[in-house]
Amino acid sequence: MNQMLTKRKKLKLESDSGWGYAFIAVALIAFSLFTAYPVINAFIISLQEYRPLGSTYVGLENFVNSFSDELFWKALKNTLVYTLLTVPFNILLSFLVAILIMPFKKRTQTIFKAVYYLPAVASGVSLAVVWLWIFDPLKSGIANQVVGFFGISNQNWLGSSATAMFSLVLMSWLSSHGTAIIIYLAALLSIDNSYYEAADIDGATFLQKLRFIVIPFLKPTTLFLLVTGAIGSFQVFQNAYLMTGGGPDHATTMVGLLIFNNAFTYFEFGEAAAQSLLLAAVIALISFVQFKILGKDIEY
Amino acid sequence: MKKRNGSKLLLSAIMMMSLLSACGGKANNTADSSNSGNTGSSGAGKDTITALLPPVSANYQARFADMEKEFNALHPNLTLKIEPASWEDMTQKLDTQVNAGSPPDIAWIGASGLSKYAALDVLIDLNPVLSDEIKADYDEVPMKYFQLGDAQYGLPAYMEIHTIGGNKQFLEEAGIDWKSVQQNGWTYDEFRKAIAKGVVKNDKGETSRYGFVFATSGVTSKDYLAILAKTAGLPDYFDNDLKYTYTSKKFLGLLTAIREMIDDGSMPKELSSIDAGKRWNMFLTGQTMITGKGLSAFENSARLNNEKIKANDGSAVADSIEVDYISLPVPTFNGADYIPTSIVDGYIALRGKKEPSEEHIKNIALAMNFLSSGSIAANYSNELFLTPITESARKAEVLEKFPRNEDNVAAGQAMMAKALPARTDIPTEQAAEALKIETEVIIPKLQALLADEITPQEMYDAVKAAAVKSFGEDGVVAD
Questions:
Q1: Bridge partner residues of B335 (DSSP)
Q2: Please, where are the H alpha helices in B75-218?
Q3: Which residues of A touch B433 (CB under 8 A)?
Q4: What distances in angstroms separate CA B4 from CA A16, B382, B479, one per listed residue?
Q5: For residue A16, what is the nearest residue in chain B, using CA coordinates?
Q6: What distance in Å separates the CA atoms of residue A146 and residue A167, rounded to the nearest whole number?
Q7: Which residues of B touch A266 (CB under 8 A)?
Q8: pLDDT tens, residue by residue, B152-192
Q9: pTM of the predicted protein model
Q10: Which of B273, B445, B453 is opposite residue A137, by nearest beta carbon?
């Protein structure tokens, strides 16, 4: 009897796992076609001088060319500077906004979340157009009117090396927190109230609660946002492409833009693929370092 | 139980089928938009010629269905299938199809992009299939723009001269004899003095009107430099001995002039951030006397805006004033002759992974000639205020009549008469190297020069160093 039951259970399991695999297969095929295949193909192309009607194998030449290209290093440096200036500040700002929103009632919280999330819903191109208008170089520009109020003369925001990178950074600071705020709010709400009650009994101040309860509990969330933020920031392309074109004098040329130019301006797909893989390696390295430094005492 | 398993199976099958059909659909679409001639064409039935075309003029794309029908009526064994593309995604769409090895048979490009596609070896030489009669229909100068070496890779659709445009009232207020300039041209010194007279300041000493505003934001800086270089004794990146020319002292002279016009206050100090839309807006709102770059069609744009202002139409450009658009030649620098920058756009013939049959290439040539001559060319040229470049188009009737400024028409003809044919002798690799210097050194350095971050000498030195690195000391002009 027992044997029969075990057999039936086993059969049922096998049947269930079979269905599981069938359903996973759909995602697996999609992943293979649209993620794994392009990555493998990019690697193959990176070893070729790509031509649509017949490529030639060139070994590691594209990687060597990238390493010896001054512009590649400059683009990498620009991207790193952009990441360092945007990611930590954006996380800090999102955290502060989340802390400020949290005490409100659910309905008010939702209104704030919706408002902050709105730019994430809007098309990046539309946002860039709005920011181009804000950074209008003449007196009519909003940014110039604001600085003019403080007695500062007209700034050539996107056209000057002194301000172009800052302008892109400012745009990132002021327009992309919705997702991080929602994630932080969810994490804040998941902290058990008993910790705050115990802290209240011990007479802890707001800052002490923040330091000893909130920040440690939010560490996994912060790490997640840091890693995904750095990945996104290293892949920045759209704003540089639409707003500065990488100028002036390559002051805002990011690696993503360089890859795009190599692929679609010069048709150097081999070099573009090599640079994409190098960028992926840099991102992987930075993510690894972040996990090593910040992820030691995190339990998931 | 059986029923539940059956429904699971059905659901899985539907999901798998939908995924496969989605992939299959994509494959079908690709094949559909691909070079139909790759599979050969003759004999088996109708040959289909595909074309990827942008909105050349306001009503060009609206006439596609009629064009397809008319072509089919002329050649019952052929089908012309036109795929519309916007200006914004035309190049990207074409490049994606080219790189996938399945381009359309015919695509619209600017002639300056010819070497890019030649380097990829995807162009078809039409010389063997173009009849003498067809060739004779086209003007010689624009025809050459679609040649490389002896190969004729396409046919020109129109030729346009890049000019600058003036506000008639402001020009006259500044005492500029614009009619004389239209016919005789002007030197940089004359131009510099003229644009200085066009500057107007308000009570606070701030400039309310500039003498000259050219769009130079981002890649449009390339236009600015290239157009001025033509009249500065640097008509091409290479001289007749195939030596790189931007290392000449004439280039330094031009860069010095570019900086001077800003330092004089005749151009805005924020020039490096002014894009094409902004500078046209500045022209229509009276914030500048002369605007660049000028195209014939802008005369019509200004006229239409004037009509809206008169009719109190809310869609007129905000704060705009009535403007009589005057077409003017670009000034000459370094004592050089006037050589206008010609912009020649047209159609190229492309092949995909499989070699097209000779019959199909012949059909492509027929379709391309159909698109770039006769009544089709007459109508888009008319809409763009251009003189047609084929005899058949000049003789063809047009659908609409537009009022033109006769002085502008005469000036256009005078400038067009000085247009030089394109260089067809520059090797593709050399042209590609020059393009790389242009994108990686010239444009970024010019942006810095316009933003007053480097001097003309520093820019000249940077370009010279890059050119020597690419072409060697002997491969560049030294004067």
A1: none
A2: 87-99, 114-119, 132-137, 140-144, 168-173, 178-184, 188-197
A3: none
A4: 12, 69, 87
A5: B5
A6: 14
A7: 432, 435-436, 439
A8: 999 999 999 999 999 999 999 999 999 999 999 999 999 99
A9: 0.82
A10: B273
